[in-house]
Design goal:
single chain; mainly alpha; Rossmann fold; Tyrosyl-Transfer RNA Synthetase; 2 domains; 3-stranded parallel β-sheet; two-stranded parallel sheet; 5 strands; binds adenosine monophosphate
């Protein structure tokens, strides 16, 4: 059986992009019966952060896992920091990785290299990510382009560890999933809609918990272009904003048939997005009334993860000379 493993970092309030590009596939994959889905809270501390904001974001993301339809009866839902093996194996992998290969990682090069206040964790987190994967022994890891380098490093570390200390890890194959929905920023449609956009400059980002009037306002201000007249509402490379709105409309089950103006397009997109978010927001409100349920689900998930990962960590410790 193929094991599905996906982690989402609570580095910001989740967006329509996270729903269409990640959660939908995670919900569908539950039918395969072997899914581990985690809130990667340790990865949310590699750049300056406020503990209160982090705590609130973790709570929101955790409840959203359930509100979007992930089912604790069919998938193991957990918080990364509740499973200490992630941190413990990460250190052993740091003792396997070379500084040169971590220095080549794109995130570090773009966000931290040569800056005096860069956190050490921004440099070392790829070892934690390798641990996140290797602990669960998946045979295949589906990755989009932006994550490919991390999984290549994971494979390199697994091969090096196995060759040096003994065969502990399954070396996962990298598979490229069918291109999923890629939702672009409404204000700058050449950029991906990102949960890390700072509050105040996130007018192009639809958050999963944005109320309908906020969704309406953000879509009303979305960039289109200056073409008017019949045929203006169509996808094309020269019209990234319009193409993005059409993609969102289709992904949310709406139809562009008969839409002649950008105003009509925006109204249709608003209706489709509001309808898509409505059950998620209702589910979230129901869960807010029962926080003990969410806590119980994630406690049980962490317990299951501790069982599944313990033999892998023990084998790695024994092989490296600690056991
Ligand atoms: P991130 O928010 O970049 O940490 O990504 C978490 C998950 O959501 C990954 O599976 C991403 O591919 C997916 N995701 C994030 N933003 C978008 C977006 N704008 N469009 C499609 N998928 C996205």
């Amino acid at each position: 059986m193929l094991r599905n493993l996906s982690l989402i970092t609570p580095s910001g309030r989740l967006t329509l992009g996270n729903h269409l590009g990640a959660f939908r596939g995670m919900v569908a994959a539950q039918a395969t019966g072997d899914c581990f889905y985690g809130v990667a809270d340790l990865h949310a501390m590699t750049t300056a952060h406020d503990p209160r904001v982090l705590r609130d974001t973790i709570a929101e993301v955790t409840a959203l896992f359930l509100a979007v339809g992930l089912d604790p009866g069919r998938a193991v839902l957990f918080r990364q920091s509740d499973v200490p093996a992630h941190r413990e194996l990460a250190y052993l992998l740091e003792c396997t990785a070379y500084t040169g290969e971590l220095a080549r990682m794109i995130q570090y090069k773009e966000k931290g290299k040569d800056q005096p206040s860069t956190r050490v964790s921004l440099y070392t987190y790829p070892a934690l990510m390798a641990a996140d994967i290797l602990l669960y022994r998946p045979s295949r890891v589906p990755v989009g382009d932006d994550q490919r380098q991390h999984v290549e490093l994971t494979r390199d570390l697994a091969v090096r560890f196995n060759n040096t200390y003994g065969p502990v890890f399954t070396v996962p194959e990298i598979v490229t999933p069918a291109a999923g929905a890629r939702v672009m920023d409404l204000q700058d449609p050449t950029r991906k809609m990102s949960k890390s956009a700072a509050p105040g400059v996130d007018g192009g980002v639809i958050r999963l918990l944005d109320p309908p009037d906020v969704v309406r306002r953000k879509i009303a201000r979305a960039v289109t272009d200056s073409e008017t007249g019949p045929g203006a509402v169509r996808s094309s490379d020269e019209k990234p904003g319009v193409s993005n709105l059409l993609d969102i409309l289709a992904a949310c089950g709406g139809s562009a048939a008969g839409l002649a103006t950008y105003g009509a397009l925006k109204a249709a997109v608003t209706d489709a997005v509001v309808a898509e978010l409505e059950p998620i927001q209702q589910g979230y409100a129901d869960l807010a009334a029962d926080p003990a349920y969410v806590a119980d689900v994630f406690a049980a998930g962490a317990e299951r993860c501790r069982q599944v990962t313990a033999p892998v960590l023990l084998a790695a410790e024994a092989a490296i000379g600690l056991g």
